[in-house]
Amino acid sequence: MTVTRIRVHGDAPYDVVVGTGVLAELPALVGEGVRTVAVVSPASLPEISRPVCESLRAAGYEVVSLPVPDGEQAKTVGVAAELWSAFGRYGITRTDAVVGVGGGATTDLAGFVAATWLRGVKVIQVPTTLLAMVDAAVGGKTGINTPEGKNLVGAFYPPKGVLCDLATLVSVPREDYVAGLAEIIKGGFIADPTILMLVEDDPAGARVPEGDHTRALIERKIQVKADVVGADLKESGLREILNYGHTLAHAIERVEDYRIRHGEAVAIGLVYAAEVARLDGRLADAVVDRTRSILTSVGLPTSYRKDAWPRLREHMRVDKKSRGAKLRLVVLDDIARVSRLEDPSEELLESAFYEISR
Ligand SMILES: NC(=O)c1ccc[n+]([C@@H]2O[C@H](COP(=O)([O-])OP(=O)(O)OC[C@H]3O[C@@H](n4cnc5c(N)ncnc54)[C@H](O)[C@@H]3O)[C@@H](O)[C@H]2O)c1
Ligand SMILES: O=C(O)C(=O)C[C@@H](O)[C@H](O)[C@H](O)COP(=O)(O)O
Ligand SMILES: [Zn+2]
């Protein structure tokens, strides 16, 4: 099967490698001069992390396997502190490396501890979910949660490389796989309408790794992300478009204590952002309808409990796009025409929520 290399430009360029069996490239990517490799992976994924560790050992590296809690439970300061302690005990130096193996929660955590240990050691990301391949592991946004909200502590810290081995997708639980489609569909609305056409052409196929368009969907979304983060790593402007749908999504995740998947919350957030833009008079009804129908067609949620609004609104305040007390939302004027809505009225925010609430 073919291997695709998507270049992420910027001050520290790297490739996102996509294909079946590309994990074989990991030892070479770690590179000369590295003595110890710390492999950060959920304890629940030994069948994926063990061969990764074995291949690194076979290549002559000292390997430290550091299991972490599953999913979002790993994105805490406590888990980060345990990893920093382990790095100290195992003597990870500036010429060593960290490898993050897992879903987006794991790659966010691994990237963050690599960014902060000794003020930055080499990190290579091995995403093993659809969402992590098309979004989380690409672009160098790393972070953990605090009790006050999602991803509130973190760093922009690009990896040395990203290996998306499509073989790992076969074991991803269906709900987690489908959650990744929300970020792919987001990419369609903000930048690449062909993504929308491919999903609409075969929604059932989009839900499985064997789908006819799976490879194209993955590569097109990675390309969207690579283009954006290559031009604006630190989110000084353009990169905000990748946050489309996330102002409400992160508030929902926090209100749910992270028992909802990130991608599911993003799906609801995408419909909310579309409704805000429609009520603001900037987005056509047809695009809002299309947002709902494409997400529904792949089995993603598009509505949320009405009574949650006051708590959601409170959590939206810590959104990183806010400036002082003023909220800023990423909105569409049309498909692939993205704007910002500065300081929207409370009435508009609540009316849009009413449109998506049940
Ligand atoms: N940094 C970024 O730019 C960025 C972008 C998007 C999302 N994110 C973050 O990514 C996280 C969501 O990522 P996610 O959807 O991958 O969730 P996740 O990391 O929680 O993984 C979902 C589940 O799948 C399991 N899993 C992972 N790989 C598997 C495999 N190959 N086979 C079987 N099970 C597997 C995990 O252990 C977990 O239980 C959130 O924390 C979100 O904030 C970050
Ligand atoms: O890469 C980005 O930039 C994004 O916003 C991508 C999002 O899908 C992702 O969920 C990100 O982690 C959200 O970032 P945050 O800055 O809102 O915490
Ligand atoms: Zn996201």
UniProtKB/TrEMBL annotation:
Cited Pfam families: DHQ_synthase, DHQS_C
Annotated GO MF terms: 3-dehydroquinate synthase activity; metal ion binding; nucleotide binding
Segments crossing the lipid bilayer: none
Cited Gene3D superfamilies: 3.40.50.1970, Dehydroquinate synthase-like - alpha domain
Catalysed transformations (reactions): 7-phospho-2-dehydro-3-deoxy-D-arabino-heptonate = 3-dehydroquinate + phosphate
Main location: cytoplasm
Keyword Transport tagged: no
UniProt KW keywords: Amino-acid biosynthesis, Aromatic amino acid biosynthesis, Cobalt, Cytoplasm, Lyase, Metal-binding, NAD, Nucleotide-binding, Zinc
Protein name per its UniProtKB record: 3-dehydroquinate synthase
Organism lineage string: Bacteria, Bacillati, Actinomycetota, Actinomycetes, Streptosporangiales
